[in-house]
Task: inverse folding
């Protein structure tokens, strides 16, 4: 999984997405910003949380798939014909909920005060 970049907002108003651990010399005012000033455990804590979000979506999909296949095998194989409907329901009902949850969390992510070097 790719690590999410950090958005740096320079004092002069310029913004840039920088990968964690990299420096960014602001083009317009020349200040050097260093994302390595962010405590590694805080950043990795956020990565872990994002991974948990992703795993919860995958886990939910696996549970639904297993239940569906088990039902189809033990009850009636014609239930497999419903698979497209189940997948559609998944996309229409679960994914928006999941995306909203991720977005809500992303909005409340911490900000750090970096110091130009
Ligand atoms: Zn600047």
Result:
């Amino acid at each position: 999984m790719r690590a999410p970049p950090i958005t740096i907002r320079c004092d002069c108003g310029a913004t840039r997405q920088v990968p964690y651990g990299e420096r960014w010399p602001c083009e317009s005012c020349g200040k050097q910003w260093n994302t390595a000033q962010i405590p590694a455990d805080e950043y990795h804590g956020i990565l872990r949380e994002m991974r948990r979000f992703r795993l919860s979506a995958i886990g939910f999909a696996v549970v639904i798939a297993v239940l569906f296949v088990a039902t189809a095998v033990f009850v009636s194989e014609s239930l497999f014909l419903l698979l497209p409907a189940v997948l559609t329901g998944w996309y229409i009902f679960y994914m928006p909920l999941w995306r909203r949850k991720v977005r809500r969390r992303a909005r409340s992510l911490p900000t750090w005060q970096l110091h130009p070097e």
